[in-house]
Amino acid sequence: MHLQGAPPSLIPAGPNHPTARVKKRSMIRATMDRPGSASMTRDIARKNRHTRKGSIPRPFPDKDHERSKGEHPMSLPVVHHPDYHPETPVDERRFPMDKYAHLSRRLQDPSFHGRLDWKTPSPASREQLLRAHDETYVDAILSLSLDARSVRRIGLPLTDSIVRRALASCGGTILTTRLALERGLSVNLAGGSHHAARSQGAGFCLFNDVAVAALDLLASGSAQRILVLDCDVHQGDGTALIFAGDPRVFTVSLHCRTNWPLEKPPSDLDIELEPGSTDEIYLEALGAALQKSLPRARPDLVIFNAGVDPHIEDRLGRLSLSDQGLRDRERLVLETCARNSLPLAAVLGGGYGPDPDVIARRHMIVFETFSGFASARASSDV
Ligand SMILES: [Zn+2]
């Protein structure tokens, strides 16, 4: 299920591309926003019904379509690659790499049988990486020859295993976005490397998987407009820089004002939350951000960074979301996309703390919420 092929002029991207125009950017403070009420989301639905193009792939396809492809009608597509778990040991106190293994193990629980449809991606190719990153940087990573200062900025050892993980993660997000276009919903068990910019990595991010995936979809003509909704507690600086001046991708970042990175290049919409913001403030801000961004972005697809580091017990986050707050966040994003017939692809994003299994349990919330929705949708189709 794809759109017509994109004209060649759409394929190159970047701030200097001649078709690029300067986008209007804005920053709002969460405490000044009005609640994201049900009436607001209905307004978004009405607006989008009037503005969406007829050639957009049909999201949330019915179960007969899925059955015809041999897929379980109630299952949520989840993307996973063995390389997500690198052999190279990392400093778990700084980056809890083990959380990915704990998450995979938890999702094998019998309670998920029939609810998840496991998919394995191909690693991203050099050509795919070059849509989002400079050639010199990509080749320095692939040849393990990046200078020591740049490696320190990333914060992970530059080894074959870590690079393979980054390639698998980018390939995983590419597959996740494609599955979302086909089946409405999907989740990658990695991804959200939003601090990686065109020519440098940072903050545990080598390549920007969301940017690589978005530019791959745009180049293939599978989508023409994309909304990146970044709910990691850190600002999506790399994503903002990569898509600065690219009118096809609308970037939203909902983050803590005082968190790293200190320099925050503007997204199309930045929502800065004060430290200690609770569930209620956060959800009001998110509702307002969705209301504001969807009519402007008019996307064919939403890519959602579902970082769990806004949680009150996160080691690096400074916000105060509860488990229920994260659950309500995932539901608000999911229900808003469903109401607007928008395909939704989620990536894991950040989550930090001393116990990787505790972090994995927070990441479980997006799988529980999305797979529950997929089941309920299939049941209502009977
Ligand atoms: Zn983060």
Provide keyphrases for this structure.
alpha/beta, binds zinc ion, 382 residues, globular, single chain, Arginase, Chain A, 40% helix
Kindly describe this structure:
This protein is of the alpha/beta class. It has one domain (20-49, 56-85, 96-380): Histone deacetylase domain (Arginase, Chain A, 3-Layer(aba) Sandwich). Helix content is 40%, strand content 11%. It is built from 12 helices and 9 strands. The chain has helices at residues 38-51, 63-68, 98-107, 126-129, 135-142, 148-154, 160-183, 209-220, 237-242, 279-297, 323-339, 356-380, and strands spanning 26-29, 76-79, 116-119, 185-188, 226-230, 249-256, 269-273, 301-305, 344-347. A 9-stranded parallel beta sheet has the order 1-7-6-5-8-9-4-2-3, with helices on both faces. α9 links the parallel β5 (226-230) and β6 (249-256). α10 (279-297) packs parallel to α11 (323-339). The longest helix has 25 residues, at 356-380. The two termini are 23 Å apart. Residues 1-22 and 28-70 have low confidence and may be disordered. The structure holds zinc ion. The site of zinc ion has 6 residues, from loops. Zinc ion is lined by residues 232-234, 307, 309, 350.
Question: What is the secondary structure topology, with strand pairs?
Answer:
Elements: E1 26-29, H1 38-51, H2 63-68, E2 76-79, H3 98-107, E3 116-119, H4 126-129, H5 135-142, H6 148-154, H7 160-183, E4 185-188, H8 209-220, E5 226-230, H9 237-242, E6 249-256, E7 269-273, H10 279-297, E8 301-305, H11 323-339, E9 344-347, H12 356-380
Parallel strand pairs: 1-7, 2-3, 2-4, 4-9, 5-6, 5-8, 6-7, 8-9
The structure holds zinc ion.
